[in-house]
Amino acid sequence: MGFSSQENPSLYFFFFFLLCLSTVSAYTNTSSNNGVEGGRRELASWRCNWFRGSWVYDVTYPLYDPYKCPFIDPQFNCKKYGRPDNLYLKYRWQPSSCSLPRFNGLYFLRKMRGKKIMFVGDSLSTNMWQSLACLIHSWVPNARYTLLRQKGLASLTFEDYGVTLKLYRTQFLVDLDAENVGRVLKLDSIKQGKMWRGMDVLIFNSWHWWTHIDHIQPWDYMEDGNRLYKDMNRLVAYYKGMTTWARWVNAFVNPSKTKVFFNGVSPVHYDGRDWGEPMKSCKSQTQPFYGRKYPGGPPVAWVILNKVFRRLKKPVYWLDITGLSQLRKDAHPSAYSGNHPGNDCSHWCLPGLPDTWNVLFYSALFS
Question: Per the residue annotation, which of 122, 330, 344, 355 is the catalytic one?
């Protein structure tokens, strides 16, 4: 096994040449595409793109009471930890040319009776998993449930319906192994994928941990093929890792038994320059961004996913939540988090934005 401190230069320049050509056009074209490209299926009806729209005030929101949902972690429970404003709870996503169905937890349980749904990813998957649990629970508050949690895996079963919501925590989707040289992030390996098989629905997510450095970087080396790298351009690494995930889907998913979703890149709001307020972050934000176009543009990770999805041979439903989430600079916990000290502009309050992600998931699942 060889060691290297740098990535392959030819791949590096080829990769970024492609990105420079496609970043803007890909974001525009995919936002309006209602068809199928490669293995990706856009979550839009033939007459309406669900991801183009605006945030509108809705007096009937939020969709559940945070004080009555037993599944919210302190990290996301903004009201419990002192957030004083309520306006952020009152926004509903409204597509430009149609309306999304309202979430019905009882309908969800009846339609999914006896089935297993697994969220696979990092803490943003936890955010979404807990949101779905609360949405369902609000419809059947007296239903019997069993909640089991252990390191890296959680399972919530609504006993009367046999519906199980599972959460498998993995920051990268590809394997992170402890070896003699240290912690190795294996860009071409998904042995842990055996834990994902047999599910009726899989919902994947991965991005935020790929950029972490220094003391919060959870690996010592990256491995690609038979070579170890002390580091690598993180966008190149992400492309390689997500390409490995796409190969796993192609090899192991049977579309007649398992529906696969990928929840798109969840944005952060640490830098106010992204929305025209250079000295600000998500802290103290109380309203969405209302401009016609988000000044920060699409994250490069969004473009990478577009390229990866072209490698898919099996249908994967893309929850393209990036653009609509970029507008919600007001929806983060910021200082109102029970176990995330400082200013959290990465995760999302519950109730809040992940509920919209799940409304989109619900709409696609039953459309």
Answer: 344
